[in-house]
Write a structure and sequence with these properties.
The protein is mainly α. It is built from twelve helices and no strands. The protein has one domain. The protein starts with 6 loop residues before the first helix and ends with a helix. InterPro entries: EamA_dom, EmrE-like.
Length: about 300
């Protein structure tokens, strides 16, 4: 077993990683505001992550052979990540980045509910209470009393954010219960291969009009480059150091991502949430952290 990094440093690394992920989404919004195609952004991000995963797998001398019984699940994982990426980036285009990320970070709640329904875990009163606590916070973030007055674009953005969370929850389910035996670098490489292939096919078939459109301004190119580099660094940092970060204990720290996006979104995009929405966001993050650390 690899030697664990001292916990304060592990938490710092996870905070930096969450901030890099948030920066990736801020860069994506900048790229999209300058007419960058949705598919092109996901394609370039996927190619960057795939290249890094192939390098890691090669250095680890990992075998790329997939047991026959797991090939379907590996392919399904790639499709789900492709759909999750499309939904998340489509949500970011329509609503503030922080709101999108708060919606996506409800996936642990969906995972827990699915675990109860499928009989993988036994319900308990404390977790149920925390889930209700998160739902109250989410209602404040979404300002549910004014949903009927929101534009159709914002309503679609909220739905897409929740769909992104759903796809991510299913992805985590498959990883934990069907693909846990497959080496992480190999699983990630095949996942990114599928994502890249889906984006190329979708672009060639014009399933998303203008999906492969290049940026129309220098800022768009910087956004496109930024989202690829930041995602690649964060993804690789998390993957390489995960065995030493005691993720079973410290992974809830990654929920710092929406907090980082609030600051970055204000600085680079001029986005902000209403005070009550900020309170709701704090409730959501606190609830998710409580669930993550419960029983540690």
């Amino acid at each position: 077993m690899p030697q664990l990094i001292h916990r304060p440093y592990a938490i710092l690394i996870l905070v930096v990683t969450a901030t890099l992920f948030a920066g990736n989404h801020i860069s994506a919004r900048i790229a999209f505001e300058h007419d960058t195609g949705l598919l092109l952004a996901i394609l370039l991000r996927g190619l960057t992550a795939l290249s890094l995963m192939l390098i890691i797998a090669y250095r680890q001398r990992a075998s790329f052979a997939i047991p026959a019984g797991q090939r379907f699940w590996v392919f399904s994982l790639g499709i789900l990540i492709a759909l999750q990426s499309l939904c998340l980036y489509s949500s970011i285009v329509r609503i503030p980045v922080a709101m999108s990320l708060l919606l996506v970070n409800t996936w642990p709640m969906m995972f827990i509910l699915a675990s109860w329904i499928m009989g993988k875990r036994q319900p308990d009163a404390l977790t149920f209470g925390l889930l209700f606590f998160i739902l109250v916070g989410l209602a404040l973030v979404l300002d549910v009393t004014s949903l009927g007055n929101m534009t159709a674009e914002k309503q679609i953005g909220i739905i897409l954010g929740l769909l992104a969370a759903l796809f991510l929850a299913i992805t985590m389910w498959l990883t934990q219960y069907h693909l846990h035996a497959l080496p992480g670098s190999v699983r990630s490489a095949y996942t990114m291969m599928t994502v890249v292939a889906v984006m190329i096919i979708a672009g060639a078939m014009d399933w998303v009009p203008g999906g492969l459109k290049v940026p129309q301004a220098t800022e768009g190119w910087f956004g496109l480059l930024g989202l690829s580099i930041l995602y690649g660094i964060a993804f690789t940092l998390l993957f390489v150091l995960a065995p030493r970060l005691d993720m079973g204990r410290n992974s809830p720290v990654l929920n710092f991502e929406p907090v980082a996006s609030l600051f970055l979104g204000f600085v680079f995009l001029g986005q902000f949430l209403l005070p009550m929405q900020l309170v709701g966001g704090a409730i959501v993050i606190a609830g998710i952290l409580a669930i993550g650390f419960k029983g540690q």
